[in-house]
Write a structure and sequence with these properties.
287 residues
């Protein structure tokens, strides 16, 4: 067995430190995905609409997760590698572009820091092994989905659907739950919100959530099993209601404003990931 793996298994401090550092770097990548994926989706939709209309769009420059290089949106300055070091570069640059000195959003280092902290916590909680690696993928994907939903009210199929299939594959051999529970969790997760959506729409004539929420809860069910879904929905609804009321009061927003539900589902899923056993025992103990 490689020496590094042995050291990671024996030293909790080394394990947490290493994956906190990896989490910081992943956080920098997640910032790119959060910014670029919605724009890639918009380009795809424009192309599809043009094809349906029989139109031909002008050839556009390549734009994906890897291309082109990151630039300052204000002065088009190409970001050098030393300007892209998680958190450290932001501090050294004092939160400003080195080219035009325009402000860099503080959200970038915040996402990097949260990703690093969450990655270190996952490493500490699960210990070195397949469960830890799977949990990291689950947590990173949920973070991207939460922020994209806040920005655009979208939950991309490019993330939710692969996440669901990965959950089912991971649980084939008893990852976080058994395969039977994971399959039922995926189906029940989708159908539960689908049912709520249609009941709400029939009663009020309005859409209370989007189809992306159905797919996200299906993915959560695939990873964590059907038994945790009621509590995920309960926690998400409670936090969402409290946050929504708070935003309406604090900002004097219109009561009809759309508030993304995805971040609250993500919060419920993270609670369930780390404390699902305790929650399940307490929940079923009531009956």
């Amino acid at each position: 067995m490689p020496i590094l793996i042995v050291q990671l298994q024996e030293s909790t401090l080394l394990l947490i430190s290493l994956f906190t550092l990896i989490g910081l770097m992943i956080g920098s990548f997640l910032n790119v995905v959060i910014y670029r994926l919605p724009k890639m989706m918009e380009r795809t939709w424009q192309l599809q609409c043009a094809e349906l209309r029989g139109e031909t769009l002008e050839m556009q420059p390549v734009f994906n997760i890897a291309t082109p290089r990151s630039i300052c949106p204000n002065c088009q300055h190409k970001i050098a590698f030393w300007e892209n070091i998680p958190i450290l570069s932001y501090l050294l640059l004092r939160g400003r572009c080195s080219g035009c000195h325009s402000r860099i959003s503080v959200r970038y280092p915040i996402i990097e820091a949260i990703t690093g902290i969450m990655s270190g916590f996952v490493a500490w909680y699960f210990g070195f092994g397949w469960a830890m690696m799977a949990a990291l993928i689950f947590v990173w994907a949920l973070m991207v989905l939460a922020v994209i939903d806040i920005d655009t009210h979208l939950l991309p199929d490019d993330i939710t659907l692969p996440l669901m299939w990965l959950g089912l594959l991971f649980n084939m051999y008893g990852g976080f739950t058994d395969l039977h529970s994971a399959v039922i969790g995926a189906v029940a997760g989708y159908l539960s919100l689908w049912t709520i959506y249609w009941v709400f729409k029939l009663v009020t004539g309005k859409e209370g959530m989007g189809y992306g929420d159905f797919k996200l809860l299906a993915a959560i069910g695939a990873w964590l099993g059907w038994s945790i879904l009621p509590l995920v929905i309960l926690f998400s609804s409670l936090v969402g209601a409290i946050a929504g009321i708070g935003l309406i009061i604090a900002a004097k927003l219109n009561k009809d404003i759309m508030i993304p539900f995805g971040p609250y589902l993500v919060g419920g899923a993270l609670i369930a990931l780390f404390w699902r056993q305790e929650i399940n025992h307490a929940y079923f103990g009531l009956f």
